[in-house]
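To assess whether ligand presence alters the predicted conformation, the chain was also submitted together with heme C. Input:
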Amino acid sequence: MKLSLYSFIVCVPLTLPVTYAGQINNALFDQGKAVYDKVCSACHNYLPPPKAAPPLLGISGHYHQAFVDPNKAIAHIVDYLKQPAAEKSMLPPMARQQWGLMAPLSLPDEELKAVAYWVWEIYTVECSKGAAAPWVCRNSQGNPPLMK
Ligand code: HEC
């Protein structure tokens, strides 16, 4: 009994998906930020005003509106980056009318997963600061202010 409890405690964290462990994975977050700096920042600003695409913190907010499970959200983002399509989009149609559909990216899976993780977690980071980004964070009633 003691042994199985021990192996449960030891093994479970190792078998959890690397993409999400319930708190920020700083190494993965930094790796994702580096991909953002290298690739995504050509079109996406982090905060408004927009460059050639919607700012990523707002996009993160839309993904937090659409998904509860971080792993599903991150997998959806990875899939979108490889093959964007209007029917997969979590943004209002207005975004594609204004900016057009995003072009597919061919990056290694590892980089796509890291940057998708970063996109998901920037909402968590910003909204834990309280008023840092009130336009994107859930209000005190738990309702997200962004409209899908
Ligand atoms: C050449 C410009 C360009 C680059 C580079 C680019 N994007 Fe985009 N992205 C767009 C545009 C335009 C949209 C809005 C239209 C859409 O949603 O397809 C968009 C939308 C998105 C969305 C929202 C998807 C949805 O549900 O509609 C995500 C997430 C995203 N980008 C992440 C990234 C990440 C992460 C990178 C870097 C790895 C990146 N983008 C690089 C132009 C770009």
